[in-house]
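Below is a filled-in request sheet from our internal design queue. Each sheet records the structural input a requester submitted and the sequence that came back. We keep these sheets so that new team members can see what a complete request looks like end to end.

REQUESTER: design group, bay 2
PRIORITY: normal
MODE: inverse folding
CHAIN LENGTH: 420
BACKBONE (tokenized):
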């Protein structure tokens, strides 16, 4: 039987209560919900409105559309989800940033049992208009005198907004499995539009200019870092996590060496500790071995010699033994440092303005153009599914397939001509 209790007449706030039998411990099964009615109505009118909502609540409860679970806020469910689900530290840090940056203030205090599709849609509209965060360590725009942002439009990109949708979907699915709600409200919401450009990468002439710039780069570590990034197609965080023991040199005959780089860890920033090497990289599939050409390894070996001299000079002050990429005192690089250095090199050598992650995409594009199939490319990138590789580089695979068709056509035409 449904009943109502007045909470605040001036705001039209009432409490609806549905009772349904007893729990094993003898206490009554109760579902309580806070409901809102017209605050300008009389108390009798408000009571009638509240009663109708309470009866609708009782109907939903009888149809198993709601549960008697204790009311809990979306923010608390999200924290419970992050604490209970195994995931890479970098992934968890990214989700926490989404939660604390915008979700907490806008919809985090809504009880998850009261969250509606309309509220989620309104949150997505807010994301469309909210400015992107300023980029760190970037000078102000001289014309507009405003800090530059990570986004070229000044607004959140479609990719960023989609990350919010994916995180909320995961949290609300967890809420269903945990018995907090029966129906997932996000199922009735369209995801944000993917309006972000296709993956940016460098093409032939730009790659040549980059290699010339790296050869001229006076800093041996950054020469090695960005050269390895291009040739390996690794994520920047995977390179930061590398130890020298991850590079294996195999002798395969006179003057023939095979260089194998093993990716088995990621990097994560920990407050008060700087950058740490994690137990595993982003996904299980990210654990992989990559064969490197000598051009990628030579800058590494030059940097290794320089690093050894720095370690000798630093003596007991050297902070971390074994890390491949470090500062002058042996500390593993901060997560954001390669991005800042990449911007400096781009400006100094007037390179094409693309994000650091584009080096990974460039490596993949070169492999595809060379005729490598999707499985080979996916394995080198560390994607957990080949579908991810296809989705990311669809246009490149289509272009490569057309090239293959043209080559086949030319080969058959040549054979027929020679047969005559």
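RETURNED SEQUENCE:
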């Amino acid at each position: 039987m449904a009943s109502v209790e007045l909470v605040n007449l001036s705001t039209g706030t009432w409490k609806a209560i549905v009772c349904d039998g007893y729990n094993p411990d003898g206490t009554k099964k109760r579902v309580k919900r806070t409901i809102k009615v017209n605050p300008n109505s009389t108390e009798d009118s408000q009571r009638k409105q509240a009663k109708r909502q309470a009866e609708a609540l009782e109907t939903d409860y009888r149809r198993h559309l709601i549960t008697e679970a204790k009311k809990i806020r979306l923010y608390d469910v999200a924290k419970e989800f992050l604490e209970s689900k195994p995931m890479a530290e970098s992934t968890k840090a990214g989700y926490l940033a989404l939660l604390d940056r915008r979700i907490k203030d806008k919809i985090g205090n809504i009880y998850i049992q009261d969250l509606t599709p309309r509220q989620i849609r309104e949150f997505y509209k807010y994301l469309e208009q909210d400015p992107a965060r300023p980029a760190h360590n970037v000078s102000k725009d001289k014309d507009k005198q405003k800090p530059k942002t990570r986004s070229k439009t000044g607004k959140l990109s479609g990719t960023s907004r989609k990350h919010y949708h994916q995180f909320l979907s995961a949290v609300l699915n967890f809420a269903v499995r945990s018995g907090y709600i029966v129906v997932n409200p996000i199922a009735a919401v369209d995801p944000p539009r993917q309006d972000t450009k296709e993956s940016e990468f460098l093409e032939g002439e730009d790659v040549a200019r980059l290699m010339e710039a790296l050869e001229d780069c006076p800093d041996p570590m950054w020469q090695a870092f960005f050269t390895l990034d291009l040739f390996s197609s690794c994520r920047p965080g995977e390179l930061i996590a590398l130890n020298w023991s991850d590079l294996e040199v195999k002798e395969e005959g006179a003057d023939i060496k095979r260089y194998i780089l093993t990716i088995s860890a990621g990097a994560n920033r920990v407050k008060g500790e700087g950058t740490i090497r994690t137990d595993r990289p982003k996904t299980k599939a990210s654990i992989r071995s990559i064969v490197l050409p000598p051009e990628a390894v030579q800058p590494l070996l030059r940097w290794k010699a320089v690093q050894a001299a720095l370690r000798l000079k630093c003596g007991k002050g050297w902070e971390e033994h074994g890390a491949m990429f470090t500062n002058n005192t042996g500390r593993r690089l901060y997560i954001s440092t390669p991005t800042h250095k990449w911007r400096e090199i781009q400006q100094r050598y007037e390179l094409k303005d693309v994000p650091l992650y584009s080096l990974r995409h460039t490596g993949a594009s070169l492999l595809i153009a060379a005729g490598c199939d999707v499985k080979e490319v996916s394995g080198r990138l560390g994607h957990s599914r080949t579908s991810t590789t296809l989705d990311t580089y669809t246009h490149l695979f289509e272009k490569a397939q057309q090239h293959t068709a043209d080559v086949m056509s030319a080969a058959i035409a040549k054979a027929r001509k020679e047969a005559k």
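SHEET NOTES:
- Residues 405 and 411 are 10 Å apart (CA to CA).
- The radius of gyration is 29 Å.
FILED BY: M.R.
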